Amino acid sequence: MHARRESLEPWLRSFVAGNGGIAGTVHLVEGDALALAAAVNIPEKVQEITRRVPRGKGMAGLAWERDQPVQTCNLQTDTSGDVRPGARAVAAQAAVALPVRDASASVRAVVGIAFAGERELGQDELDRLAQGASALPA
Questions:
Q1: Where are the domains of the chain?
Q2: Cα(34)–Cα(131) distance, rounded to whole angstroms?
Q3: Cβ–Cβ contacts within 10 Å for residue 61, how many?
Q4: What is the pTM of this model?
Q5: Domain GAF spans what residues (predicted)?
Q6: What CATH number should be reported for the domain whose range is 2-133?
Q7: Does the N-terminal or the C-terminal CB of the chain have fewer CB atoms within 10 Å?
């Protein structure tokens, strides 16, 4: 995982900064789970909890399962059940998990980005973020 992490972390830092975010993650599909491959401004405890994410669990697992972005207006107060309690340790509010597809249209990764303010991301912004996430190095 370390070779991947080294190559993905600079990309993630650029993606988060370029989109006005304050934190982010990259999870790669590995078998029946997502494996944390890069993290920016994510507390170590949250990284421990999210090193392996089952399909359908938390925002990243749901984005993988649904093959569509999963967002929350506020990580701190979300009651949808999509946000796991550990996510509240991230000092952010609005967040989205974006599935990234490979050439055969299968989800190969999930990119997460979180923002300082509480807000709902509109479809145009979700599309722009998804387009940016699709540039994730293979």
A1: 2-133
A2: 20
A3: 22
A4: 0.89
A5: 23-130
A6: 3.30.450.40
A7: C
